[in-house]
Amino acid sequence: STWAKAMGGGLPIGAVIGKAEVMDGAQPGTIGGTYTGNPVACAAALAAISEMERQNLCVRAEIVGAQVMAKFHELQKEFPTWIGDVRGLGAMVAMELVENSDPNRPATKLVTETLKRCIQKGLLVISSGTYSNVVRFLAPLVISDEELTRGLEILATELRSVINSSLVATA
Description:
The chain has helices at 20-23, 39-54, 57-78, 108-120, 145-164, 166-169, and strands at residues 2-4, 14-16, 83-89, 92-99, 102-106, 126-128, 134-137. With 171 residues, the protein is α+β, with helices and mostly antiparallel strands. The longest helix is centred in the middle third of the chain and has 22 residues, at 57-78.
């Protein structure tokens, strides 16, 4: 598997991780990448990993993910014809918005308008998916419970507002 991004604390670095028998079988210099061997990035990665361990961010990722997943499932029950799939791993959780419970009818307009309104309320959430109809929620793991709750409430309020408006009510 590969690992990167957060590992470098903002500096470009990546890693390849595998079973010892596989990794030990590779010839020196055959596993590499664009960001191989930068000593400054390596020092940043060691510091970032140390902070992740000190703050117990792996556990925090599970806690944050569970809270987001619970809110998304709550919204899914409230709007079953608009919210199709809810999925995630750790703190990265997504909900797919569809029209009329049909996964072949992406609700791109609903997502676009909801996220536009979220930004106006101070919450930055992004869309993803082939049709930009998936709301992807990935908060910093150091987020406070209060900030997480506030962000999820902004998202829920704006989603409700758009769904209940004439903008998508006839879709």
